[in-house]
Amino acid sequence: MTAAGVAAVVSLIVIPAVLRGQAPAGRGGAPAARVPRTADGKPNLNGIWQTFGGANWNLEDHGASAGPFFQEGAIGAVPAGQSVVEGGGDIPYTPAALAKRNENARNRLTLDPEVKCYMPGIPRANYMPYPFQIVQSPQNILFAYEYASANRVVNMGKPTEAPVDSWMGWSNGKWEGDTLVVDVTGMNGNAWLDRAGNYTTDATHVVERFTLTDADHINYEATIEDAKLFTKPWKIQTTLYKHMEKNFQLLEFKCVEFAEEMLYGHLRKRYN
What we know:
By secondary structure, the chain is α+β, with helices and mostly antiparallel strands. It is built from five helices and nine strands, in the order H-H-E-H-H-E-E-E-E-E-E-E-E-H.
């Protein structure tokens, strides 16, 4: 979808509440922060959003460290980051799953799907260091990600089942008060959660919650459960910031061509 097409869709469906003279109601009738709303009265999530922090490096607490290649110096170093896991704790892995996570971390340069330009999966797509766009309508909500041109459509009608497992899974959404709740199933189990080796299986189930706190910020939460990996469900939380730069738009990051040599270079016929 072109930027012009996105703008046309947004202009048709968005009517800020302040222009319509409405006072948005919070849960239980309590006053809520005045947030822009669409024509059907729902919080307006339309826009280009991005998170800032170290979650894509590691969801858990981590200190700064040198990169894998000394030739890159500080450019390749890993910045420190605070845990986005609820309570600032660790992910509740089973012992076997933790051992696998640690093995992934040791081999991240060859195993991390991000290195290979594969689809990021959910929830990782939302906290990678790339912007993404939300285009909202009453029937469906489109998420278009700059990284690898990934995308997904959240079905806002009667819940449906995934026809096949996929990298980005299958998203069914609903509104709980002013919070968009997205239930994500049908993932293929190949996606990682970050560069530190935290990973998923085909049994991973994610429930996301997008809450517009004001016109320019979304509180993002994701509850993750998988009996194959974790001793209990656990939750992450971060903030999404709306891009307000003039004429800001998603650009292309079609990274397949950057990964082709690494993935397939050894198959090239060699001539003496």
